[in-house]
Design goal:
Elements: H1 15-21, H2 24-40, H3 47-71, H4 73-78, H5 94-115, H6 118-139, H7 146-150, H8 156-166, H9 171-194, H10 196-201, H11 207-211, H12 213-237, H13 242-269, H14 275-302
Length: about 300
């Protein structure tokens, strides 16, 4: 990690810069899937306990994101997509980001343990370390499989929500974890295909940079195909009802079709534009929101 490309004199940061450190758009997905895990659990949830659990998930995600940006400030400075973040733009001291990330992370785990339960707190702590250390420091700069292995970091929230409600690990939260784990590679590789030059400039070995577009597209399709039966597993094996089952079949089938468009037809036509990749990336976000919303709707409709 170097500071050569980062302004040496940072301006005083305001609350918007600290908020930006938490990666709000990513956090919204984390909060949503965590809330769905909580609401889909087959037990009544005390409103105060539920609010505390979701708040802790949000704080933990924000803390991990701040630590990620603290470590990657030099990388962010050379990537067009991230150059305007508070650290590379010179609006914040690096130490401030580190302190902010550590305080949020430690506070989230402590409050989760005291206010909700220590099993949920331990899983939350594992998720923070997974993202901030295993993925950010170890995997991302070293292997094109960074997203595959690192996908576990974003897969924890629904499991934490479920455990916060029930106090135990059962098959359903494991399946929800697996769904996000297998969803992550096609989601991020679709993004990487149309921002490949950014990753190449920063020497990040993302799949398109290392293996090329053809291999990346093929692997996107493989994961999309594997995701289809996996998304149906909660219906087949874990008690989800027909509302979820029908939604999962429809949503995952569209995911496969869009991935097929990227993998097969794009491979034949070449890289004339990136609209199919951008369409797949946008749909992948909608997919996860809709799939988990269907799980909650199924729980409340079917009882």
């Amino acid at each position: 990690m170097t500071a050569a490309t980062i302004p040496s004199q940072a301006l005083p940061a305001d609350w918007r810069d600290f908020f930006a450190l938490t990666k709000p758009r990513v956090m919204s997905l984390v909060i949503f899937t965590g809330l769905c895990g909580l609401l889909a659990a087959p037990v009544p949830v005390d409103p105060v306990l539920g609010f505390t659990a979701i708040l802790c998930i949000a704080l933990g995600a924000g803390g991990a994101a701040a630590l990620n940006q603290w470590w990657e400030a030099d990388i962010d400075a050379v990537m067009k997509r991230t150059a305007s973040r508070p650290l590379p733009a010179g609006r914040m001291q690096r130490q401030s980001a580190l302190t902010f990330g550590l305080v949020l992370s430690l506070a989230s785990v402590f409050v989760m343990g005291v206010g909700v339960g220590w099993l949920a707190a331990v899983i939350l702590a594992v998720s923070i370390v997974y993202y901030a250390v295993i993925y950010t420091i170890w995997l991302k700069p070293r292997t094109p499989q960074n997203i595959v292995i690192g996908g576990g970091a974003g897969a924890f929230p629904p499991m934490i929500g479920w455990i916060a409600a029930t106090g135990e690990v059962t098959l359903m939260p494991v399946l929800l974890f697996a769904i996000i784990f297998f969803w992550t590679p096609p989601h991020f590789w679709a993004l990487a295909l149309f921002v490949e030059t950014d990753y190449a400039k920063a020497n990040i070995p993302m799949m398109p940079v290392v293996a090329g577009h053809h291999s990346t597209r093929r692997q996107i399709l493989v994961y999309a195909v594997l995701l289809l039966p996996l998304s149906l597993a909660p219906f087949w094996f874990a008690g989800a009802g027909p509302v979820y089952g029908a939604s999962a079949l429809l949503l995952s089938s569209v995911f496969v079709l869009l991935s097929l468009r990227v993998a097969v037809f794009r491979g034949l036509a070449g890289d004339m534009d990136m609209r199919p990749e951008k369409r797949l990336f946008a749909y992948s976000v909608l997919y996860l929101f809709a799939l988990f919303a269907a799980l909650v709707a199924d729980r409340w409709i079917m009882g």
